[in-house]
Amino acid sequence: MTRFTVNGQPVHYRMDPETPLLWALRDASNLTGTKYGCGTGDCGACTVHIDGEAVRSCTVTIAAVEGSFVTTIEALSRDRSHPVQQAWVADSVPQCGFCQPGMIMAAAALIEKNPNPTDAEIDAAITNICRCGTYPRVRNAIRRATRVRAGIERIAAPPPPGGSDGSEQS
């Protein structure tokens, strides 16, 4: 019996304690915005926040997160108003979109800890793999998100509905 909080709601998974968090989120909680990519923690498609830290959910068991607070892309902001989500859309970051939830979660954790990261700090923190090669747009979007978060810049329109935040169901 494993208990922790997911997206603000207490959960109790009756699964093998060695089950990767990724599969508990996707299969038991139907939170499919967290993607399965490599299963080894290399690609970052499964990135979620555990107690505010960006963590690759395929590499951590549900037993290891007992008592923790887990946030998935679905709860980063319910209305897609998070500065990273807004900047992602404004800078047209997604191409195929598969890696985007993990990248957005990694970027959100980065700017929470470091409100004005340098390019080197962005590159060090965002090690997610994007097969479409959107890395320059990712970096630009993170810079824009820091300006939005600081109140220096405003993005005129909210992101459109329909999964532009990378949380489309699949």
From TrEMBL:
Pfam families: Fer2, Fer2_2. GO terms for molecular function: 2 iron, 2 sulfur cluster binding; metal ion binding; oxidoreductase activity. SUPFAM superfamilies: 2Fe-2S ferredoxin-like (SSF54292), CO dehydrogenase ISP C-domain like (SSF47741). The keyword Membrane does not apply. InterPro entries: 2Fe-2S-bd (IPR002888), 2Fe-2S-bd_dom_sf (IPR036884), 2Fe-2S_ferredoxin-like_sf (IPR036010), 2Fe-2S_ferredoxin-type (IPR001041), 2Fe2S_fd_BS (IPR006058), Beta-grasp_dom_sf (IPR012675), Diverse_Oxidoreductases (IPR051452). The keyword Transferase does not apply. Keywords: 2Fe-2S, Iron, Iron-sulfur, Metal-binding, Oxidoreductase. Residues 1-76 form the 2Fe-2S ferredoxin-type domain. PANTHER family: BLR6218 PROTEIN, OXIDOREDUCTASE WITH IRON-SULFUR SUBUNIT. This is Isoquinoline 1-oxidoreductase. It comes from Allosphingosinicella humi.
